[in-house]
Amino acid sequence: MDIKNALDFFEQLAQNNNREWFNARKDTYLKIKGEAENFADALIAEISQFYNLFGLQGKDCIFRIYRDIRFSADKRPYKDHIGIYIARGGKKSRLAGYYIHLKSGECMLAGGVWCPEKYDLEQIRRVIFNDPNSYKKILDEKSFSKKFSLWEQKLKTLPKGFPKDTPEQTAEFIKYTAFVPMKYYTDEEICSKNFFEQLINDIKIMQPYNDFINNIIE
Predict the structure, then answer these.
(1) Are the C-beta atoms of residues 173 and 128 closer than 8 Å to each other?
(2) Do residues 217 and 97 make contact, with C-beta atoms less than 8 angstroms apart?
(3) pLDDT score, position 51
(4) Rounded to whole angstroms, how far apart are CA atoms 180 and 197?
(5) Below-70 pLDDT ranges, the chain
(6) What pLDDT, in 10s, does the model give residues 25-66?
C-alpha cells in the first residue's frame, strides 16, 4: 500500500471536504481503498497465524468514507482518514480487535473495545473486579507498558453496583467506559519500508490484552 499517497489524499480532502472535489477524484480514492483492502488482507494473513479470524477478508474491515450527517451539526460529507478494524466479524464486530487509523499526524494502532455494549461492559468490569491481578499483569508486562497506553475514557466515580470500599487501583480499572490500548506512529514511521513488520510485532504484543477481553465477551 502506498501509505504516503493515501495520507496526501486525505490531507487534501480535509481541506476540500465537498462532493464536487471528491467526485472529481473518486477514482483516486477507489484505488486507495483497494490498496487498503489488500493491506488488510496481508494483516489478516499474518494475524491468522496466532489468532483465528474465521475467513475474514480485507473488504470486511474497511470503514466507509461517507459520514453519517443526519443528526450532526458537522455537515462535512467525508471522513478524512482510513479506518481499518480487524476482528472476527469484521468492522461491526463487538469483539476486541485491531484498529488501524491512517491520517497524517494522527496514525495509530488501537485494540480492545470502544463503547462496548452494556452487558459486555458490565461483564468486563466484573471480571476485573473479581481478579484485578490478572488484568494488572497484562498492563504491567514490560513489552506492553512500554508501547501502549489506555485511552482515558472513564467515569469520575465508581459505576453502580460496585462497593465503595473497592481498592483504589481496582476502582480505577473499572471506571473505564472503554478498554482501548493505543499507540501513535509518526508519518515517517508508517511510510517506512518496515512499517508492516513493526505493526505485526505491535499487534502480537497487544494480543494478550485482546484475548483477556474476548475471553469475557465470548
Answers:
(1) yes
(2) no
(3) 93
(4) 22
(5) none
(6) 999 999 999 999 999 999 999 999 999 999 999 999 999 999
Helices (H), the chain: 3-15, 19-24, 26-47, 118-130, 132-140, 142-147, 168-174, 187-190, 195-217
Q: Which residue is associated with the grid cell 460529507?
A: 77
171 within 8 A of 164, measured Cβ to Cβ: no
d(CA 110, CA 113): 9
86 and 202 Cβ atoms separated by less than 8 Å = no
Quick one: how far is CA 141 from the chain centroid? 20
Helix (H, G, I), strand (E, B) or coil at 213: helix
pLDDT of residue 102: 97
Which residue carries 499526524 as its cell?
Answer: 105
Predicted local distance difference test score (pLDDT) of residue 203? 98
Hey, what amino acid is at 157? T
> Parallel, antiparallel, or unpaired for β 107-110 and 82-86?
unpaired
Q: CA dihedral defined by 28, 32, 38, 42, rounded to 10 degrees?
A: 160
Residue 149 CB neighbour total at 10 angstroms: 12
